[in-house]
Amino acid sequence: MKKKIVTITLITIFSILLWGSVSLSGDYFTTEVIPLNFELTSNNRAIGLVSDDQIVVSVKGQGWQLTQITFGSSPELKIPVNDKLGRQNISVRNIIEKAGIIGSNLQVVEINPETIEVLVERKIEKELPITPNLKIEFEEGYGLVSKVEISPDTVIVMGAESRIEELSEVLTKPIELTSVDKPVETFVTLDKFEFINYSINSTKIFFDVQKIVDKEITDIVVEPRNIPPSRELIFFPSRISISVRGGINQLGQLRNDQIKAFITYRQAVDDTLGSLQPTIELPDGVQLINKKPNRLQYIIKQL
After folding, report:
1. Less Cβ crowding at N or C end of the chain, within 10 Å?
2. φ, ψ (nearest 5 deg) of residue 31
C-alpha cells in the first residue's frame, strides 16, 4: 500500500513539472513598475522637479525568462542627468537597454512614460529651524512643566534653489505619546523632502512632565518700572499674594525672587479707574491662577 502511494505521488509531481515546463515555454506578457534614480555629476546642481519618479514597462518573453523579473528583486533604473540648467526631456528606452535590467532575450513592448522631464537648478543651502511634530496625552493629573526642547534645533538643507527658498522650517516625523507621567527624552527622525539633502537625519526631543499641583505664594513685592527721575510711584498695598499651578517638584523649589510683579509708570499715567493691575512674570511651566489683590491703589509723588 505504501509503495503504491509513493508511486502515485511521484507521478503527480512529474506531471506538475511537465505541465509547468510546457506552460512556461510559451510566450507571455508581464508589466513591471521600475523606480527611477536621477543622478547628477556636478555638486553645484540639484534636481528641482521631475515629471515622474517611476516608469511602467511591459515585457514579452517565455515564461521561464519572465519569472526572473517577476520573482527577482525589484530593479532600479539610474537616470543620468545633464548638468545644464533648465528643463530637460530624457528618453528612457535607450537607458533601459544599456542598463541591462531587462534581459536581452526579453522584448520591451511598451514604456510608460517613455520621456521624463527633469528640471535642473542651481544648488544652494540654508539653515532652518526644526519644529517637533508632537502630540502628547498626559496621564490624569500630570502635565508639561517645561518647554519642549530639541537638540540640535536647526538643520542645514541643500537642494534646488526654488525648493530651498520656499522652506521656512523642517518638521520631525509625527510622534504621538500617550499616558505620559514622567520626563521624556527621545530621538525622532526628520521629515524628508524629495531631492533635498539634510546635514542631519534626526534630533533629540526632551521635556519635563510632573504631577500638577496648586500653591499659594505670599509677600510678593510689586516693583514700579520706568519711573522718571522726578517721580515716585507708590502702591497700596505694596505686596501681593498669588496662586500658581505647576509641577510638584517645580513648585516645591520655586522661590519668591523667581517671581516678578511690576507696574509701569505709563500704566499709571494712562489710568482712568484709580487702580492698577500688576503684571506677573513666572518661570516656564508655572501658570498663574489668581492674585490678591487683583488691583492696587497708587499715588504718583513728585520729588
Report:
1. N
2. -125, 130
Residues 6+ apart with CB under 8 A from 39: 78, 79, 80, 81
Q: Tens digit of pLDDT for each residue in 236-276?
A: 999 999 999 999 999 999 999 999 999 999 999 999 999 99
Q: Which domains does the chain have, with CATH numbers?
A: 22-122 (2.170.120.30), 123-210 (2.170.120.40), 213-302 (2.170.120.30)
Q: What is the pLDDT of residues 110-129, one digit of tens each?
A: 889 989 999 999 999 999 99
Cα dihedral sign for 183, 189, 192, 196? positive
pTM for this entry: 0.71
